[in-house]
Amino acid sequence: MNNPPAFPSGNEVTLGDLRSNGHSGMTLRDYFAAKALQFLLGYEESTPENDAKVAYAMADAMLKAREA
Q1: Among 22, 26, 41, 63, whose Cα sits 20 to 30 Å from the Cα of 52?
Q2: What is the pTM of this model?
Q3: pLDDT in tens, 13-63
Q4: Whole-number Cα distances in Å, 46 to 12, 14, 40, 42, 55
């Protein structure tokens, strides 16, 4: 399964006193899971543990669909 960085940056970034020489960003799987989690929140039978499992299962399905 291909899981590239979601928001890579090779540029130097300065925020106040903080300086970064770039970063790979979060993974695409984490980004997809975060978006799926927004959909899952608020259901009556929702629990944090179950929501996290379902969100990552949905993210894995999205990554697999990208390969097709």
Answers
A1: 22
A2: 0.70
A3: 676 776 666 666 788 999 999 999 998 887 777 888 999 999 999 999 999
A4: 41, 39, 8, 7, 12
